[in-house]
Structures are given as structure tokens and as C-alpha cells.
Amino acid sequence: MKEFALSKKLPILFLLITVALDSIGIGIIMPVMPQLLIELGAAGLSEAATWGGILAASFAVMQFFFGPTVGNLSDRYGRRPVLLISLAAMSVDYLIMGFANALWILVVGRIIGGITAATHSTANAYMADISTPDEKAQNFGLIGAAFGVGFILGPLLGGFLGEFGPRAPFFAAAALAGLNTIFGLFVLSETVTDEIRRPFSWARANPVGAFKHVGKLPGIRRLIVVYFFYSIAFFVYPSVWAYYTQERFGWEPIMTGVSLAVFGLSMALVQGGLIRLVIPRLGEHYTVMAGFAVNVVAFLIYSLAYEGWHIFVLAPLTSLGVIAGPALQGILSRSVGNDQQGELQGILTSISAIAVIISPLMMTNTFSYFTKPGTPFYFPGAPFILSMALVLLSLVIFAGRKRLFTGRV
Fold this sequence. Notes:
16 helices
């Protein structure tokens, strides 16, 4: 019995480490990215922010086109090979970026990483495979908590390693991804059985085909639209945080890392613990609405903050907004069959990718416009006002869902 329990716990541990590495990989390079971009040729902070948006968009374009393909492959061939190949590719991607000596090489690295980026979406599909319908939202919360833990460790590591140069964090991220790939080779079990295995179809292994097929399910298009707008809004954090805090408060990379770590800790506590108390009481529908309402307030607060300590004091409050994500994913996962979980996560990856294409370009250019010399109105917090408006739109669209669905979901 002990061996059986261990055999189940180790794959879940691998799963949570994998998701944590996703956010560690983001957070570990955020504090040094402005410095590296300037070192490679960007002329000042405003242009570095624009290049940061281009890098994020390059990664996301590839995710958009290949997300459904990878999701359908995992429904056919299993989660294990997809996760392991993706982790290995992640390690190579960070090595390319670490050795880059020109801006275009960073872009190439992001393109390669985007093609094979499936760790988070496949981890969600894996978690859906091993969860009962009532457990899905709460277990997606565990995924979110692992992402939050990575958000704590990543910026701290990035800020510390950044003292040794802007390339050191990239090599650290490559090593972590490589080590976890080896761990997965030994402990990861397969969850796709013959009962839920679905034939691979190119007609559904692309963004248009996959969305057309899944979109036939009642009410799911509304949920996907909500997920899309919310994703654009939430990506304001990785898009402009390093630029915003440096411009607004004059922070060095180490302080940027600490601030992200505080937010990550708060987010992990909410998604790993508090959400398990909230969802059974409110239900998934009202949990999403409550999370959106908190996000509206959070974005307004960040846009108006004028002292660095405001960020630290308000982080526990503003992090409550992350309860919306797992609850929304739980509703979506329960809306499709067991043989479509990979396909659904592939679609959500594509939706997120579109958001990542749009959000960095939108947010960084908004930041650049309101901070560049000669701007008619200086306002570094402008991207957060834009995010606030998008969340309000998501809330309005989602509120109409009750007319289509009944029950606690």
C-alpha cells in the first residue's frame, strides 16, 4: 500500500515542480531582462520594454499555432512524453538565451520555446485526468499554488543571480528544467488509458479546428471569451512589472524580485489553501465573480501607487483575485469529456497565447507612451488601468452565464 501511495504522490510532485518551474523560468529572468536587452542593443528603458513585448509575442505566436497540436497529441499518445519533451526543450531554450549575443538570437530562442511549450497546459490535463469532477477546481488551485511558489523563488533567484550578471539566471533556469526532466523519466506515470485515448486528427489539431469542435458545447464560447479577456488583463504583471517598478520607484533588480516574491507567496497561499474553503461555500460561478471584483480593485490600486511600500502592504489583499482562475478552469474542464481534456487545455493554451501576443505589446507600448520624454500625460500606472477595464468587461460577460447554466457551477 505504501508503494502504491508513493507511486501516485511522486508523479504529482513532479507535476507541481514542473508548473513551479514554469513560473520560476518567468520570474528568474524578469529582474535582469531590461539590463540584458540594453546590453544587447536596446536604447534605453522604453525601447527595452518594447523589445520585451516583441520577445513575449514571438513566444506566444508559436504557442497559439502549436498549443492545440500538442494538446491533441497528449490525448492520443499520453501526457508523459509531451511533458518530458517540453521540459527538455525549455532547458535548451534558456541555454540559447543565456548565450545570446544579439537581440535576434533572443527572438529565435523564444520561437523555439513557444513551439514546444506545453508544460503548463499538459500538467493541467494530467491533473484533470486524476481528479473527480468536484475536485477539479480545487486541484487546479494546487497547480496555481505551485505556480505561485515558483513566482516566489524565481524573482528571488533572479534578483540574486542578477548580481553576477544578466545571463546567470538563464543558465540557472536551464539547469533546473534539465534536472526535472531527469526526475520525470523515473517517476512520471501515464494517465491516458485506452478508455479515454482519442485518435489524432489534424482537423482538430489546429486553433481554428479545435475551437470549432469544442465551441459546439453549450455555453463554452462565452467562457472562452471571458478567459481570453481575463488573460490579457492578468498578463500585465509579467509584461510591465520590472519596467513599472524601476520607473515609478527606482527599484534595482533585487527589489523587483522581492516584490514579485511577496505577491507569489500571497498567491500560493490563496490558491493552495483559501480556495479550498471558498469554492465549497460560494460555488465556482460566484468564486469567479468575486475574484474578478478583487482584481478590479487591485489594478486600480497598483496604477495609483506612489510609494514602494504600498506594493508590499497591499499584496496580500490584491492576491485574492487569483481565486478566479482555478474556478474558471474548473467550470471549463467540467464542460468537456474526459477524452477532450488535452484538447481543451491546448485550446486554452492558444487563447492564452493570443493574450500573450496582445498583452505585452499593448501593455509595454502603453507604458512606453506614458513614460517617454515629451509624453502629454506622465502616468506609469496606465497599463493597470487598461487591465482594470478588461476585467470589468470579463465580469459583465461572465455574469450573463447564469441565464444559460443552473446549479452551483
